[in-house]
Amino acid sequence: MPRRRDIKKILMIGSGPIVIGQACEFDYSGSQACKALREEGYFTILVNSNPATIMTDPGLANVTYIEPLSVDVVTKIIAKERPDAILPTLGGQTGLNLAFFLMKEGILKKYGVESIGASVSAISCAEDRELFKKAMQETGIDVPKSGIATGVEEGMKIGLGIGFPLILRPAYTLGGSGGSIAYNKEELEKFLSKGLETSPVHQILVEQSVLGWKEVEFEVMRDCVDNVIMITSMENVDPMGVHTGDSMVVAPAQTLTAEEYANFVNLSKKIIRRVGITGGGANIQFAQNPDNGHIVIIEVNPRLSRSSALASKATGFPIARVATKLAVGLTLPEVMNQITGKTTSFFEPTVDYCVFKICRFTFEKFPNAERVIKTSMKAVGEAMSIGRNFREALQKGIRSTEISRYGFGCDGKDAITDEMLKNPGADLVKEIKDRVRVPNDERIFYLRYAIKAGLSNDEIYELSRIDRWFVDNMRQLVETEDEIRKYRNNRTDEAIKLPLELLSKAKEDGFSDRQLAYLLNVKEDTVREHRKKNNTRAVYKLVDTCAGEFNAKQPYFYSTQESHEEGRPTKNKKVVILGGGPNRIGQGIEFDYCCCHAAYALKEEGIESIMINCNPETVSTDYDTSDRLYFEPLTIEDILNIIDLEKPMGVIVQFGGQTPINLAVSLRKAGVNILGTTADSIDIAEDRKRFKEMLHKLDLLQPDNGTAFTFEEAKEAAKKIGYPVLVRPSYVLGGRAMEIVYDESVLERFITEAAKVSGEHPILIDKFLEDAIEVDVDLIGDGQTFVIGGIMEHIEEAGIHSGDSAMVLPAYTLSPEILSKVREATYKMARELSVVGLMNVQYAVKDEKVYVLEVNPRASRTVPFVSKAIGVPLAKLATKAVLGKKLKDLGFTQEVIPEHVSVKESVFPFNRFPGVDVILGPEMKSTGEVMGMDKDFARAYIKSQIAAGQRLPKKGNVFVSVRDRDKRAVVFIAKKLHDLGFHLFASSGTAAAMEKNSIPVKVLPKVAEGRPNVLDLMKDGKIQLVINTPSGRIPRQDEVKIRSHVVLYNIPYTTTISGAQATVNGIEMLIKKELEVKSLQEYHKKLKGKNQK
Amino acid sequence: MKAILMLEDQKTFTGTALAGASGERIGEVMFNTAVVGYQEMLTDPANAGKILVFTYPLIGNYGIAPKFSESKKAWVQAAVIKEQTRIYSNWQATGSFDDFVKENKLLVLAGIDTRALAVHLRQKGQMLGIISTTSFDPKELSRKLENFRRKPAQSFVAQVSVEHIRPLGKPSARQKKVAVLDLGVTQSFIRQLEAAGAHVTLVPYNASTKDILGLKAHGLVISDGPEQDQNLRLVEQNVKPLVGKLPILGVSCGFQVLAECLGAKVFKMRLGHHGVNYPIHDPASYKGEITVQNHSFVVDADSLAKRKDTKITAYNLNDRTVEEIESRKLRVTGVQYSPVSPGLGEINPVILKFMKTLKRRN
């Protein structure tokens, strides 16, 4: 049926900042949806608070709001824009929930807005546990048996009725805390009483445990005339008990019979019909008892999801695009399949390869967090790999995660060596068994150790419940590894003796050159040369949705070891863009945004773009972002293989974050042309010594610094520089293991920790400039002309990682003199490094002096933020500069200083890691960011806080506790809060400072000393804001508890004085005046008007 | 054991033969794009005589079990796969794919680039091929292929069909009697019929009109089976007088026979439809279904258009080939696709509808 004509304007809700559980996949779905709606001629309005998205680029929707995703704000947008419909299915759970609240509060009805994609009743059916249970039972599908108990006796009765093992979930606790598993009557009784106590409502869910069952997922779509298709099946390698977002996943499912498969598809189709989706897709998760095939349904997501993004990338079927078209009334047969160009979307994709998804974790960032994975998601990113068998996909997947591993072990990085595994002692076997049994981020490597230590497939299965089929495939890898090892050289310079047949087999099993080099005791280059000489090279196969049945028009590619090449290199001018790989803390969506812009710029310049990336969540891995997409790991071997085939004119490394930058030197050595800033300039910026020399030459300041390999050297250096010092290992990302050290004893402990991180690299020691103001500058250059994109002032003082800091553009407290010093220094360095493309500089300003902290000759995290603030697509211009265009010709020669204020705020994953201290420091911890825009700082800041999820109060109680240094400064803040009508509570020291200035305050006892203390008040909902600055490296117990509670009860908090200042100013704005909304297009129009004058 | 596949156009693929059989096998090479169902496909009598290529690269993952066989043995000439997985894992499995291959003495060529082979067939069309573990000389293999082509084709229908009229159990009063003209019927099809309330009597392919009428069945099914078989002519002659006399359901190959009875023409496609993801749709609406299909021949729509009493009720959405016809007047239905069970214990709507017509008319 033709698209709906009764609706003209459609509002789309994005998913907001990147958090654990909601990442780039919603930029992928949102961007596809924007494009799909505009193709159909609809007027689109988009709201999203995340500036680092492609979807919020001003060209995608007709009107774009970078505003907080709150009911108030979206209501204002609805009132202003008057959309006919709202599409809530592409913004993750955030978008869906927001639409649900808009409905509940009658906003949608008031303004006559229809929910399309998923009706309100469909959302309710999937989200409301009781409705869902009922609907599934009516459809004849079992749900895990459960009951809710309010007392131990009742709980026992329910539990014994269901049978063991049982999962106990106390109601309304965060992140599954207090949950436990009972295997017998005694445990049940014990956990019931404990659980009931933890629950604030004294309620506990007693549920049948399906732990260890096979977890399978199906993606289905349905249109308005009831055509239903299944996109793909997925089987979780980690069984039930691990969140699917944390699981290793294969697509399609590998261990289901044809009959079971058909049955699951049938059930899935029944479910999407019963839930009532009439124009969109759903993800359906099942658990299956591996011993008897019994199936229960776990959940249904009536929207685009992380799994649907994976399903989409795994099959080539653009689920988000098609779902959007279905939402506006088109039917599946009417929507073309753009991959084949011949068939329609009414078909079920089939594959002739094995897809593997593996997660990227960041436990190293949260050393106090329990290093296990459970039912609450902890992964920050994921990589997808494709192979012709599971073994190849597994090995490629592991090296795609960029954790410095090059496959399934045997890469010289195994924590437990082969020697140790030959005759493992009882302790070692126990350790291995434990880590195979309890899911954790390193389990995949422990599976290998278990095989090597002599455990059978059955034993491993019994411990892990990972299907024997997967375990045996891993075992085959170990066997091949052992086979290869037989041809090990004594000396690295000997010729490779490995028989070609075995080499071929190794490659079919996905062994990397790096692994082979380690096993054969030769250099990686030698393996590569040997392979090329013997014509053992990777070929490229297609992701074409149809297993080769149709000649695909717009497929994408993966490498494998086969006899026939299907790659389609052209003779045209072309450039390779290296993507950023899986999301992680320190490298996320911002870089994908830049890579996409590089592809768009190449298209505009008539040059073919070739994208290499392995992150299934992203826009860069969409089939139509680049001319050719290679779904491959970002390692030197995999990249050179593609370059050998494609022979591009060059490679762009400056957009994918640190990943491609780290490869620049090796690529250069292999004879690859690096476009843009030269590899030598990159080296100057990265090499501490050369960098120091450059600063000296340019007469620029740098904090005093030194390097050290040992504690003695470090002690000496620190003494010379003077405490406090900032110490960190060299060559790390996102401030990993970086720390501010105030004395020698802490230094010693740090050195022992950091040495582990750094390996052969030295430890870097810098003077820490206390209370300095940090400044970030983004610059674009073409080798001759250099233009500053934006100067951002950090709101938090120095010492907090720039990725975690809130920033404001334009700078709001710096004097014109300081700003001109910053500009001068930036231009000097850009000229010296002859920057072609983008550059980012970090400065610290103290006592009217400007110190250079760091220079990155690449796109920075802030590029999308700055681009949106100033209305100039920096990454796109930078790409053109890299291709040889001049900024003069591109029309960008002058720094834009907007009248409006833009604030970037970071978003943190603390609620995923219960017990971890919520403080900011030199090690980056945020997963994402939001942007607040308005006419002045206070408004923009408060928007950024609301967007970041802070529920700022307009009245109530504030708890203040600050370190001695901050006591003077906090008085002014407290005074203002008092004037605004807030009641103040404080710890005794802080209270004394306030009382001295006659501010009324109530003293609260230390946690251990009396009750009610601050924790009690927080629990009872009596504290609405917390200002708590940390007192040092080892925080006092009270502080840790306070800040954990803040996360637990979602109370707004700030841990810096400047943050507190800005928050209080913002609250004042909130109280005095309602916030207004304004679209990005309106801001940019004003900027253009100004520029033309 | 080293093995080679050579196609009619001389293209070769070299791999190894699994432990089932050695020697030489010649047949039409076709590929199926389904991810699961290897045991069902190999034992489907409709695939008799073919060299079946699986595009999904991992075969044997969930093992085999007797209950998944569509007939008593594997009927294909040979199979071509990428990789036989080393172990199988599924709670229902009673043996490995390797066991199955050995038991059926099946020649399986493994370890070749099956995608490249599928793409080649897509580009050049389905063609004959020879798999050999004994000779690797292109000239000799080519000659053998040529000889095979010249030789009159053997009838597979005669081999796969039941030999004598065979009622499956005793009919009860509640059951409708359904005669199934067995051109190569599958077990799963019979199970669905029975689940829908039919008492099934299998009838050999060469049963006469009189034989069939003599069964006094409420309805007749012309089953699926090997296409373009020399014996189908005979089937057509025997069935033609039955059209209009009792409700008839023609399935896949049986549908082609039925269409010919109605005067329609059947022609061979370049590639055929072999997979589980084919969309069909009702030309009068936007509504359709995803179907399982396994056919290299189709009924010519134009030749069918001449019959005013018969309607085309579904086309394949991709290439507009005829997938379903119906004549209310003649009480005949034909489906080119395979009316498989939608899910555990469930019955395909085509079969349910057919069973309903039996009830109404009797």
Explain what the structure shows.
The complex is a heterodimer of chains A (1093) and B (362). Chain A has 1093 residues and is of the alpha/beta class. In chain A, 38% of the residues lie in helices and 19% in strands. Chain A starts with 8 loop residues before the first strand and ends with a helix. Chain B is α/β, with parallel strands linked by helices and 362 residues long. Chain B is 25% helix and 31% strand. Chain B has helices at 38-43, 97-103, 114-124, 138-150, 157-160, 187-195, 209-214, 232-239, 253-261, 301-305, 349-361; strands spanning 2-7, 12-17, 24-32, 50-54, 58-59, 78-80, 83-84, 107-110, 127-132, 166-167, 176-182, 198-204, 219-222, 248-251, 266-281, 288-299, 311-316, 322-327, 332-335. In chain B, helix 1 (38-43) links the parallel strand 3 and strand 4 (50-54). At the A-B interface, strand 11, helix 9 and helix 17 of A face helix 3, strand 15 and strand 16 of B.
Question: What does the secondary structure layout of this molecule look like, with pairings?
Answer:
The complex is a heterodimer of chains A (1093) and B (362).
Chain A: E1 9-13, H1 25-39, E2 43-47, E3 63-65, H2 71-81, E4 85-87, H3 92-104, H4 107-110, E5 114-115, H5 120-127, H6 129-139, E6 146-149, H7 152-162, E7 166-170, E8 180-182, H8 185-198, E9 204-208, E10 214-222, E11 228-236, E12 249-251, H9 258-275, E13 280-288, E14 295-301, H10 306-315, H11 319-327, E15 354-360, E16 381-387, H12 390-400, H13 418-422, H14 426-437, H15 443-452, H16 457-464, H17 468-485, H18 500-508, H19 513-520, H20 524-533, E17 539-543, E18 556-560, E19 574-578, H21 589-604, E20 608-613, E21 628-631, H22 636-646, E22 650-652, H23 658-669, E23 674-675, H24 679-686, H25 688-698, E24 705-708, H26 711-721, E25 725-729, E26 739-741, H27 744-758, E27 763-767, E28 773-782, E29 786-797, E30 807-809, H28 816-833, E31 836-846, E32 849-856, H29 863-870, H30 874-882, H31 887-890, E33 901-907, E34 928-934, H32 937-947, E35 957-961, H33 967-979, E36 983-986, H34 988-996, E37 1002-1003, H35 1014-1019, E38 1025-1028, H36 1037-1048, E39 1053-1054, H37 1057-1072, H38 1080-1092
Parallel strand pairs in A: 1-2, 1-4, 2-3, 4-5, 19-20, 19-22, 20-21, 22-23, 35-36, 35-38, 36-37, 38-39
Antiparallel strand pairs in A: 6-9, 7-8, 7-9, 10-11, 10-13, 11-12, 12-15, 13-14, 15-16, 17-18, 24-27, 25-26, 25-27, 28-29, 28-31, 29-30, 30-33, 31-32, 33-34
Chain B: E1 2-7, E2 12-17, E3 24-32, H1 38-43, E4 50-54, E5 58-59, E6 78-80, E7 83-84, H2 97-103, E8 107-110, H3 114-124, E9 127-132, H4 138-150, H5 157-160, E10 166-167, E11 176-182, H6 187-195, E12 198-204, H7 209-214, E13 219-222, H8 232-239, E14 248-251, H9 253-261, E15 266-281, E16 288-299, H10 301-305, E17 311-316, E18 322-327, E19 332-335, H11 349-361
Parallel strand pairs in B: 3-4, 4-6, 5-7, 6-8, 11-12, 11-13, 13-14, 14-19
Antiparallel strand pairs in B: 1-2, 1-9, 2-8, 3-9, 10-12, 15-16, 15-17, 17-18, 18-19
